[in-house]
Amino acid sequence: MEAIVKDDLKKEEKKKNASPSELPPHPSPLHDCPFWYPFYCRIHLQLADRNIEAGVATEEDYLLKGITVRMLYDTPERNQEALDLIVKAKTLNVNPEYYPQIFKQEGITLLRLGKKQEAISPFQIYLQKLEAEKEKPQFVLDEIAWTKKMIFETKSMQINSQ
């Protein structure tokens, strides 16, 4: 069992660092997911929904729900719903500096919706926030590299599609 979970985590890490050109255009929502992943995502949805319905939701709740909806369903309608949730998270301003990944997720979701030009700005904001960090542990350096790659590839995809 432990070997299966480790293998699943390695696959997830590889997908996390993949560029859009390395992914299928519309992967199946359960394509190559660990066996426990859909269950785990549904728990996130339930917890976020509970806070939203109670009127106590913060950026984290809307962000997690947006990410989860996008990852579980990946249809144009559900991706638009995910984008709306992420935009709502941005507007709350409860703790805006604590969730710079809102911009990363907005960019990814815009790409899923085919809005390449609009996706560049959130990625650039995310990059600025990462570069403004005083201390840069390896995971921040990795995110900076990933974001620069995404900006470059998104601009390239935009040029190639014209």
**What summary fits the major beta sheet?**
none
The average pLDDT value, as a whole number, equals 82
Radius of gyration: 16 Å
Task: Estimate what percentage of residues fall within beta strands.
Answer: under 5%
Structural class comes to mainly alpha
Q: What letter string, H or E per element, gives the SSE order?
A: HHHHHHH
Query: Percentage of helical residues?
Result: over 70%
Helical segment count: 7
Could you say which overall geometry the principal axes of the C-alpha atoms support? globular
Any low-confidence stretches, pLDDT <50, length ≥5? 1-6, 23-32
N-to-C span: 48 Å
Number of domains: 2
Number of beta strands: 0
Question: What is the secondary structure topology, with strand pairs?
Answer:
Elements: H1 2-16, H2 37-54, H3 59-73, H4 76-92, H5 101-112, H6 116-131, H7 138-160
Please outline what is shown here.
The chain is mainly α and 162 residues long. It contains 7 helices and no strands.
